[in-house]
Amino acid sequence: MVRSASRHKTPETRTCRSAISSSASRPPESRLRANRRSPMSLPDSVACGRFRRHPTASSRSANCASRPIPMLARSTPRSKSSASRAVSWAIIMLAAAGLVNAQPSATEEVPRAAPLLVAPAARVEELLLQVDVNAQGLADTVLVLRDVEGRIAVPVDSLDRWRLRRPGVAPRFHDGTPYYPLDAIPGVTYAYDAAKQRLTITAPPRAFTDTQFANAAARYPDATVSPLGGFLNYNLFASRASGESQYAGQFETGLFSAYGVLVAGLLAQDSPGAKSAVRLDTTWTSDFPQRLTTLRVGDAINVPGAWGRAVRFGGVQYGTNFSTQPGYITFPAIAANGQAALPSTVDVFVNNALVAQRPVPPGPFSITNIPTVNGSGNVQLVVRDLFGREQIISQPFYASVNLLKEGLEDYSYEAGFERNNFGVESFDYGRAVASATYRRGLTDHLTGEVHGEFARDLAAAGIAANYLITDIGVVSASAAASGGGMGAGALGGLGFQRQTGQFSIAAQAQWTSANFREIGSSPENPLPLRQWSASFGYQLQRFGSAGITYVAQDFRTKPNIHVLSLGYSVGLGPWAFLSLSAAKTFGTSGNIAFGATVTVPLGERTLAAASYNGTRSSTQGNTSDTSFTLQRSVPAGEGYGYRIIAHTDGEVQASGTWQNDVGTYTADVSRFQGANAARLSVAGGIGYVGGHAFLSRQIADSFGIVRVADYEGVGVLQDNQPVGRTSAGGYAVLPQLRAYDVNRISIEERDLPLDAQVDKLKMEAVPYYRSGLLLDFPVRRSHGATLRIRLDDGAPIPSGAIVQVTGRDEDFPVGLDGEAYVTGLEEHNHLRATWKGKSCEFDAEFPRTAEPLPNLGTFVCHGVAR
Fold this sequence. Notes:
The protein is mainly beta and 866 residues long. Helices cover 4% and strands 53% of the residues. The chain has a 24-stranded antiparallel beta barrel. The two termini are 70 Å apart.
């Protein structure tokens, strides 16, 4: 589609035509010929000039543009009045006369005057073209401009839509829209196909604007709010050794609702000469997954920060809890950059493992939020274009879980009373304590921390930081000061950590002054004067891995501790695994301990091992021991396990475990130095949720109840692992669901009878912390049966007739010989059959039978003709 756009008017400019080129009475061909300049025609400067009148109140300037250059595009003729044509002729004649009179003589010098004529305005075509850029298949229809030299300009909104950078030239405005010439963009070429009205643009990657893609994180749906429920865990022990019997029991009870969960623990013991019952932790917990926070009221453990000590207390704690959103990434995510000339597909590899794949358009691109592992590694982008050509882009990275991404906050605030003698006394609470910890990612490379502690006659505060040195490792530093009854004290610390796929190195050092105090320190548990540790590990590929660690603590009031340990492990082909270890303790009571173990797997859950352990001590002498082990682990669902250990000194230990849906039962026997010992234990749980009470194995985390109608013996799987079968009432217990995580639960379709109607075989369970869910699978009995319907003459009703059960909406077609299959039957049913405007009704009884598809017999439609 082509239009002429030759006239441009402004408030100070008007377009003028000569009488030859503007005659409206001539046909287009004659006007076109007249526009061509002949030897006798007037010059453009005469045919269209510019003059200025003396300014008056009513006068205005009139400018005249040059005559447009004729184009192949069609122009629309405009008619003029005879008066206008007369004025035009008069102006031309006056201009010609002025030029003749103004011719200089041979001796007259003509002064140079300022030019009075404007430059000719270039005439352009409007082309409505279909545009494609770098073979993207855009099929975009755009109105472009084409000048007499063939240069094409496109509107600015199209450039933005195609992601092409705007050139650094002034735009040309057409009908109020800015247009930019394509050849002003560096590296851009284009081809105009007039026959197909198509414009094909080819641009280098640098001509496009950047495209950013955020790699999608794993989907974690919102947790399901639990109804009111509860649970009770128990673990009962009975043992006998040296003629004496001991009994013990550990109990844990929980009560949950939509507002949180209350959990309390108790330890009871009955041994010769002593009986006791000790309360353990009692805590109310409310999680807020959308805010990534948790509130605890009762017994809890404070957050020590970079330099403090963790202590038990009774009180209130509120802080961040990133585990309420398992897929949330706290440390800085990495990004990789590349560019593509054509539409391409990018495969993202992290340490040679494919983690993402996505299409990208032409131009520079960056992919962010790439999942990584802790330590250093390599991100590799494989860019494959439409023609199968590949380019590989590699980029190293370093990620650390000790860093927070920029702007992320991690905090914990606690206040209460310090708890003493946990596990021995039930209500031994001491002095009031309070602490606060606040961490923030200042940048992706720097994480800062502020920590403070307060107690009676004690106040301590300090700062810490972790800084990532790109491609080297993470440096940490801490400093704190304390004051109180013991005077002022100080603490300082430094550390470094680097981890790669081949080796890891870590070093940590801390120093304290004599008067520095913090929560948890006491004369019985003093702070060391200085402590440091260093470790180094190295992967030897197929030759195994080795590591060395050194730990030292120097005290002011008790002996120092210095330990050096070595370790090495290697696979002995596909059939065995070797592990070696050695440790040396320095000091007056120093010794050397070393060991070696060979492990041979004998199946999925069974292994055999041979071990040797020896000790060399200057104060306690030398010891050595060789043992042989045969072990089978307990499965996730029903099953058994065992362990047998035989020592060369005559000691023997044997244990067996049986696990079913309602408990775990263990028996241990041993013989050592001629004495026998035995122990029995029973562990299980009792729960209630959704109006259903049940027995189960111990409920260690969250749990769920599966209901499959009233079908017994249906297999239930959690994450594709068998975990149990439904009971006689159709229930199965899932005692170990992961809180806030997606637990994929499914049932075995092959265990369902033929009369089962199944709408869904898989469900996702996302429970709250220590809470329960009811998963009701949409499975129901069809209560179906076959029957035959005949007329009075014995002939079957026609095929295609419809049978309906009164009170239900389903239609059941009749097949050959008047036979129909009907579901949803009850004990007493009223049925209706219709066909070709005829109908009949009859009653049918559904028998109580275990047969999945009973036959109800033959029914006759009386008084109805065929």
